[in-house]
Amino acid sequence: CSADRGMRSVWSRRSVAWRACEGACGRWTSSDLSGRAPSTLARCNSAWPRRLAHPFFSTTTSVGVASAGWADGARRSVEVFAVASAAAAALAWLSGGTVLAKEKRQESRYQVYVWGRSESMPGGAPGDVLWPKRIEWFEQNEAGWAKIVFGPNFGAALDGRGLLYVWGECPGEEECAGPVAIDVRGEGRGRCFVDVQCSADKIFALTGRGHAIIFEDVLEALKSHSSSSSLAPVALEGRLVPGLPQPGKLSALTGAGGIKSMGIGLEHGCFVTHRGEVYCVGGNEWGQCGASPPRQKGPMGALEDRSRIQVETPMKVTLPAEAGRIVEVAVGGRHTVVRDAAGNVFAFGDDRRIQLGLGDTRTQGIDERNSFGVIRQDLLGGKDTKQDLKRAVTYRYYDPHMQFKPMQTLAPAVYNRPPYPPPSFVACGEDFTIAAHRDSPDWYSKDQETNVLLCCGENGEGQCGRGLQEQQQPWTPVRVPKRSRTVTVACGQAHCLALLTTGELLAWGASLQGQLGNGKRAIKAKPIRIGLQPAQERLAPVNISPQGMPPEFHAPKVEQRPFPGKIVSVSCGFRNSAVICEVPLDQ
C-alpha cells in the first residue's frame, strides 16, 4: 500500500543518512598528526549537524544537535545522531522536502601570529617580539585553531578538533619546550574541549558537556618532556574542578547541568552554569570570589595591600534579587564582572582603582578636586559638582575599597543623546573594565549597528584608551573610530586588542615587552592600528617646505602590512597577544 511504500522510502533515506554520517566520521577522524589515538578523535568528532530544508520555514533548521553534547562517547553519539537523522528524513518526506548534505566549506588554512613576552612565545624567542610573528608550526594542523591563550611564562592552544597543545619556559633550561600536544590523563582523558584559559600557573579547560578540567604542574611536565627530547605528547593529569555542578546523563539532550562558560584570571577563576549560577575559586583577599574576607588588624588606607586569602573549593556567589540568569563573566586581576540575560552588569572585588564601575568612589565628598578640579561649577552658573558626581557606594577613610557582594554598575553618563542600552559584552584587564554599548538607533539593521567602548579603572599606562590626563577614571569612551562596531575585545595585564567589523585590529595600553605589536615599547594611550612589520623600517627624509623657504625634512610614515585573510580570533594574556587568521588557499 502507499503507507508501506512511504515507510520504505523513509527507511531508505534513513540508511542514506546513516551511511553519510558513518563516512563523515571516518573521514574526519582519520588524522595524520603524530601521537593521536583514533579513539580520541572519534570521541571528539562523533557529532556533526545536518541541515533540513523545510518549505514551511524561512531558515534552515539544524538537526542532530542532540548529539553535540555526547562528545565523550562515540557510540552514544552515533546512536543519537541516527535517531535525529531518521526524524529529519521522516519530516522531510512528510513535507515533501529533501535532506541536504553538509555544506562544503571554503578551503582555507589558518595562520597564527604571536608577539610580546619572550617567555610565553611558542617555540621560544631570544628576546621580546615587538612585531606580530608568524608561527609556522600551527599551519601543520589541518583542523585549524580555535583559541590561543597565555600565562606569564607558558601558553596553550585549542584546535578545531577539541585537542589541547601547550608550550612554555622550562626552569633552568635555555630553550623553551613545545608547542607539543597534551596527552590528557586522569579524569580529563578522552574528552573533547571547547574552551581553554590560563591562570598564573594552571590551565583550565571546558568540555562540550560542561565539565571543567584543571591541569597543574604544567612547567614541571614541560621540563621533564624537553629533557627527553621526544616528539610524543606531554602527559598532563587532568582532574575535575571539585565543588562545581556536574552534568547529568540527560544534560546533552536537555541543555542543563554543568558549566556553560568560565573566566580565569591570574589569581582566581569564575564559572557560570547552564542555570545561570556563578561559582568562584582562588584568591579572595579583596572579595573577588564573592565572600567576605576576614578583617585585617590595624588601619587600612585606600591603597594598602591585603594578605593573601585563598578559597580552595568553588563557592556559589549570592547575587542580588534583581539579577537575572548570568550569561557572561569577565575576570580581572582582583575583581569579577558578570552580566545577566537582560544586560545588567554586576561587579565585586577590588575597587581601589574604581574598576568596578560604581562611580568615582575615591573620596567621601569632602575634597573632590581630584574629580572636578579647582573651579566649581556653581561659580559658573551651573549645578554644584557634588550633586553631579554619581557613585553607588561611599567608603570611609579607613575602609578598604572593595565590595565582596555583587553591586550593579552605574550607567555611563551621556551628553546630548538618550541613555546607552545595556552592554552587549564586557572584558577585564588587571585593574580596569571595558563594556561595549550600542550607540546607533534601535531601528538600524544588524549590519548597520555601531557600538562604543566604555572603560573605567586604572589608566596610568593608557589602559582606558583615551589619554593620560587621568590616572583613574569612571566610565569614559575609548577613542575608537566613530560609527564603527567592535566585534570583540581582549585584555591583557595592561593592554587591549579590539577587532572591528571592517577587519581592522586596534591596540592600546602598555607595551613594555612589545605586547602592542607596533615595533616599540612605548605606551600608546590612544588606539592604534596593528599590522605586520613593514618591508622597510624607515624611508629617506623628504623636504616638505614650499619653494623659496628654508628646507624642512621629514621622514615619511611607513605603512604596516595588513594581516593575510580574515582575523577570526584575538587573544591577550599577561604581556602577550595573538591573532588567528583564516587565509584562503589561493591567497
Present the secondary structure layout.
Blueprint: H1 2-29, H2 38-44, E1 50-53, E2 61-63, H3 74-95, E3 98-100, E4 108-116, E5 129-134, E6 145-150, E7 154-159, E8 164-168, E9 177-186, E10 193-198, E11 203-207, E12 212-215, H4 218-228, E13 234-240, H5 251-254, E14 259-264, E15 268-273, E16 278-283, E17 310-316, E18 326-331, E19 335-340, E20 345-350, H6 369-372, H7 385-388, E21 402-408, E22 425-428, E23 432-438, E24 451-458, E25 472-477, E26 486-491, E27 495-500, E28 505-509, E29 524-529, E30 542-543, E31 553-554, E32 566-573, E33 576-584
Parallel strand pairs: 9-13
Antiparallel strand pairs: 1-2, 1-3, 4-5, 4-33, 6-7, 7-8, 8-9, 10-11, 11-12, 12-13, 14-15, 15-16, 16-17, 18-19, 19-20, 20-21, 22-23, 23-24, 24-25, 26-27, 27-28, 28-29, 30-31, 32-33
Main traits of this protein?
587 residues; alpha+beta; 8-stranded mixed sheet; 4-stranded antiparallel sheet; 7 helices; 33 strands; disordered N terminus
Give a brief description.
The chain has 587 residues and is α+β, with helices and mostly antiparallel strands.
Spatial strand arrangement across the major sheet: 6-7-8-9-13-12-11-10
Count of strand segments: 33
| Helix amount | 10-25%
**Tally of alpha and pi helices:** 7
The main pleated sheet reads as: 8 strands, mixed
Q: Taking Cα atoms only, what radius of gyration do you get, to the nearest Å?
A: 27 Å
**Can you tell me the overall shape?**
globular
Low-confidence residue ranges: 1-83, 85-104
Mean pLDDT: 80
What is the SS-derived class? alpha+beta
Strand percentage, roughly?
A: 25-35%
How far from one another are the termini? 57 Å
